[in-house]
Amino acid sequence: MAYNVTLIPGDGIGTEISEATRRVLEATGVEFNWDVQQAGEEVMPQYGTPMPDHVLDSIRRNKVAIKGPLTTPIGTGFRSVNVALRMALDLYANLRPAKTYRGIQSRYQAIDLVVVRENTEGMYSGIEAAEGSPEVQAFMELIQERLGRKVRPDSAISVKTISITGSRRIVKFAFDYARANKRRKVTAVHKANIMKFTDGLFLEVAREVAKEYPDIEFGDLIVDNCCMQLVQKPELYDVLVMPNLYGDIISDLCAGLVGGLGVAPGANIGEMGALFEPVHGSAPKYKGMNKANPTAMILSGVMMLRYLGEMDAAARLERAVAEVIAEGKDVTYDLKPDRNDPTAASTSAMGDAIIRKLEKIKVG
Ligand code: NAD
């Protein structure tokens, strides 16, 4: 049976790493009907929006999607399509594992962490009012009237929202993931000492949910301390669950522990389906150079295979990637001891090397 999967190649380095990912996924022997959909800045002139309805409809129909990164203009311009996709499809759980593969240059060894990031609320609510706008004025008046607090008149305002519903489902997701994957501990990461109502609520709900999982250890950590602890004693942690913005930052930190963004995969999972994508962005400076590391997106493909129940293909593909990395020959520049190594493989050549390995690995 062939799986119907939406493929959003993305922009920047997205096109190249998506092509390598598509080829290695097909080389596992699993069959796919790719429903290729374009989104982002490049489709703006044609559709007047970076996220046309037909892209969302495709994901709703297929229930499984894999995407390359999409560029978001900084400060001004359209809002992130990546965030909008997760919101529109209510893909509330952003699962970002960080695992050391042998042969990767890193200051750390044997890292095995999983960040579970809430994807639909927190600082990413998208409720914002620009400096000088009538909306920001109305917000300020309300704050003064109801809370007796004065906001500097030349301010902009972003609203952070945290709900019981959103917190409960993400913490449950983290515990269910821990149980299903035989992990020992879940740590809730927050800033409840300062944001007593929002992060305080997240922590309170996390403590309640933890009682439903007596077989799994539970702890909590303030986010700034979490950064230091992860750098100094990462072995003390296992599954980490946290609100949106902290998850975005901590997952990049964890990627740094295992050798960089080039090897950090991710999944966005909800009730309606799942969208798989690397943690990294579109790295525009490498666009069109066939130079970027396809591993993060290929490992996102491994996560997709597991989600589809293709455990054997997932294990074979992960092993093929691990062997290519361990040998250290056909890897991209970022996985070489010297990043200027002229023998570094291109994006497509690393994909080819993984396909050759796959052909030799019979059963996972
Ligand atoms: P980035 O992740 O694109 O790049 C950060 C650094 O990591 C750069 O030095 C880059 O060269 C390197 N890097 C990233 N991926 C790599 C790979 N596969 N191989 C080798 N090196 C790699 O982050 P940025 O520069 O902050 O963002 C660029 C754009 O990507 C922005 O528009 C941002 O909004 C967008 N972005 C998109 C997503 C997404 O699509 N989910 C995620 C993050 C950022």
Distance between the termini: 20 Å
Q: How large is the radius of gyration?
A: 21 Å
DSSP strand count: 12
The helix/strand series, from N terminus to C terminus, equals EHEHHEHEEEHEHEHEHEHEEHHH
Q: What strand order characterises the main sheet?
A: 2-1-3-12-11-4-5-10-8-9
Which strand-content bin applies to the residues?
15-25%
Major sheet attributes: 10 strands, mixed
Shape descriptor: globular
Question: Any overview of this molecule?
Answer:
The chain has 364 residues and is of the alpha/beta class. It is built from twelve helices and twelve strands. It has helices at residues 14-27, 44-47, 53-62, 81-88, 134-147, 164-180, 198-210, 223-232, 244-257, 295-307, 311-327, 347-360; strands spanning 3-8, 32-36, 64-67, 93-99, 112-118, 128-129, 157-158, 185-190, 217-222, 239-242, 267-269, 274-276. The chain has a ten-stranded mixed beta sheet with strand order 2-1-3-12-11-4-5-10-8-9, sandwiched between helices. The chain has a two-stranded antiparallel ribbon with strand order 6-7. The two termini are 20 Å apart. The model has no long low-confidence stretch (mean pLDDT 96). Nicotinamide-adenine-dinucleotide binds at residues 13, 69-72, 82, 261-262, 277, 280-283, 286, 292-293, 296, 334. Nicotinamide-adenine-dinucleotide is lined by residues 13, 69-72, 82, 261-262, 277, 280-283, 286, 292-293, 296, 334.
